[in-house]
Amino acid sequence: MALRALRLESLLDSPQAYGSTYGECLEWTSRRWRQVAREWNYFLAERAVRGVGIASGGPNDRYPGTRWLYGMYVTPKERGTGVAEVLVDAVQEWARQQGSTSLYLHVAAPMQRARAFYEREGFRATGDVVAMERDPSILLTTMVKSLA
Fold first, then answer.
1. The pTM is what?
2. Which of 34, 36, 115, 127 is the most exposed place for a label (fewest CB within 10 A)?
3. For the residues of 74-120, what is the DSSP string, one character each?
4. What is the pLDDT along the chain (148 residues), one digit of tens a residue?
5. Comparing C-alpha atoms, which of 100, 114, 133 is closest to residue 72?
6. CATH code for position 126
7. Which residue range is the domain that position 87 belongs to?
């Protein structure tokens, strides 16, 4: 249920950053959340047994041999404390273990703080910009980091 709480919090805090909405995820049953926790590749950061951040990694069909970082969120009180770096490191390590050579992500145009963080972490814009599926008015910049 920590995943559920953080995911819903993230969708309220920064709705323009994610491909799903608070309303959609709020309707998920407990069974659906347990399924997501089992089947999706989420990493959970905790402090004093309380969830403070999440990130996920997944396959990248567009670029074989690479992976995606997505669903990244750190609760506001923990921003700037190193939690985000730990989450990115966890997804990078997972991607390396999968044999990936690069890690990609999308960052929404309104999320300038997130983009600056990713740049500090070594991600670079690829030049690709795509419209978000659920809201084509939100543009997503594709970024990549070499894992070599």
1. 0.92
2. 127
3. E-GGGTTTTHHHHHHHHHHHHHHHTT-SEEEEEEETT-HHHHHHHHH
4. 889 999 999 999 999 999 999 999 999 999 999 998 888 899 999 998 899 999 999 999 888 889 999 999 999 999 999 999 999 999 999 999 999 999 999 999 999 999 999 999 999 999 999 999 999 999 999 999 999 8
5. 114
6. 3.40.630.30
7. 2-146
